[in-house]
Inverse folding.
């Protein structure tokens, strides 16, 4: 009964995404496939092909994995992952909101945290980049790029997806493909003119159903 109430409550918030258990312990190597993760949690249609995204829990970790078909390599192609770990659903980025700009060349990736309505880079350094690091506070990332596209796996500590009782972690994703230049976001409310608007408004993000 409790789970049914939670599901109904999440539905009232708008888009939802189910956090399903992993079929088997994922191999954390930067590659992702249906053989490893099962049916995609989400599919995003882009000019270069269909991006498949999975959200799975295994033990004390949550895995977010994606495959991006894209034969035209560009270092700045990116997958942006935004999380509201407290389920506040604020109108602008706050203390419990995080954002990862994972670029095809991972060294150029950027990580932000919300602060008083805006995204703040580590140490307030606008030139901060991930560099050779592949991990931060409670998360790790791996990626593989080939001639036909790229894939990415992020492993989060489960605390990122453990909001206070009665709330739901908020999640949004946004993709950029340089050739052709295109942006695709999910969720994508009808009121949004540009895909990049979604990542600035946690209230628009989907509720993650445990």
């Amino acid at each position: 009964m409790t789970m049914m109430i939670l599901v109904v409550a999440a539905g009232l918030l708008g888009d939802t995404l189910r956090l399903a258990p992993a079929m088997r312990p994922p191999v954390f190597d930067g590659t992702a496939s249906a053989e490893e993760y099962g049916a995609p949690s989400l599919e995003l249609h882009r000019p270069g092909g269909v991006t498949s995204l999975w959200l799975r829990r295994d033990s004390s970790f949550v895995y977010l994995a994606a495959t991006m078909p894209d034969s035209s390599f560009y270092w700045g192609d990116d997958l942006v992952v935004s999380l509201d770990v407290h389920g506040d659903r604020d109108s602008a980025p706050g203390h419990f909101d995080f954002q990862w700009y994972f670029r095809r060349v991972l060294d150029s990736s950027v990580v932000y945290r919300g602060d008083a309505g805006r995204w703040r880079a580590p140490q307030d350094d606008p030139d901060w980049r991930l560099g050779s690091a592949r991990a931060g506070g409670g998360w790790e990332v791996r990626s593989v790029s080939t001639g036909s596209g790229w894939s990415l796996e992020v492993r989060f500590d489960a605390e990122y997806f453990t909001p206070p009782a009665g709330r739901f972690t908020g999640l949004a994703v946004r993709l950029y493909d340089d050739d052709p230049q295109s942006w695709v976001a999910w969720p994508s409310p009808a009121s949004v003119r540009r895909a990049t608007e979604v990542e600035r408004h946690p209230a628009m993000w989907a509720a993650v159903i445990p």
The domain at 2-209 is CATH 2.60.40.1190 (Immunoglobulin-like). The chain has one domain: 2-209. The radius of gyration is 16 Å.
